[in-house]
Amino acid sequence: MRIASIRETFYGRTFDVRAKPHAENVAYTAGYLGLHQDLLYLDPPPKIQILHCLDNSCAGGESLFSDGERAARLLLRHHPALAAPLRQQPVPYAYTRNGYSYARRRPLLHYDAEGRFENVFWSPPFQGARGADEPPLQPWLAGARVFEGLINGEEAMYQRKMQPGECVLFDNLRVMHGRTAFDAAGGGSRWLRGTYIAQEDFVSIATQIPQELADKANADDAVWYGELEEKLGAHGVWKAEAQEMVDKMA
């Protein structure tokens, strides 16, 4: 089954993630890349990201993934006061290089027009400059530090050294991704090729999934749905750690 059409960006239809000289951002170095979402300075950001591993023969370079929505809902549930500035105070994201200029402001916790939590926006490596007349940053930082701790928690993080031929598809508006540092000079290399799919195209295809397959996925106890509060109880260890972390910050 064809998933959807590729969403072309200023990077082209596809892009290569590999270390190179004079890299325009940290993604194209061999250094550690913290958890983030891609292209938050575009409107809208791409919904689906696909990364295909072509080579990962160097030391290091493990891919990192963490569920930002789950962390956000835990923070909202356990300490709404810490979460409030993350909803109210937008963060600037910007890209101005190679003849391109994009900028958008997005809150970490995004709500829809009817006041319902919708998704998260988190991309510290690609934040833009704040204005001098903006509200004090300290309240936002207090909540952001807790959120960052939640997504980087040992139980919240999925780590995998991708092998050539493997491909990962994930929700860029929910799942944070990053990577560990790797040795680009010690032999071997790390090379991923990526692309994006727009939300409307993915949803259009998803509505055609046979009902029996959808029912099977929804019945899986391992699947976590943010809208169902009872599902939080299935993650007791991580929930307890989250509560402890929030209490320390409060």
From TrEMBL:
Pfam families: TauD. One of its GO terms (molecular function) is dioxygenase activity. Keywords: Dioxygenase, Iron, Metal-binding, Oxidoreductase. SUPFAM superfamilies: Clavaminate synthase-like. Its cofactor is Fe(2+). One of its GO terms (cellular component) is mitochondrion. It comes from the Eukaryota. Residues 5-196 form the TauD/TfdA-like domain. The keyword Metal-binding applies. Gene3D superfamilies: Clavaminate synthase-like (3.60.130.10). InterPro entries: AlphaKG_dependent_hydroxylases, TauD-like_sf, TauD/TfdA-like. GO terms for biological process: carnitine biosynthetic process. Belongs to the gamma-BBH/TMLD family. This is Putative gamma-butyrobetaine dioxygenase.
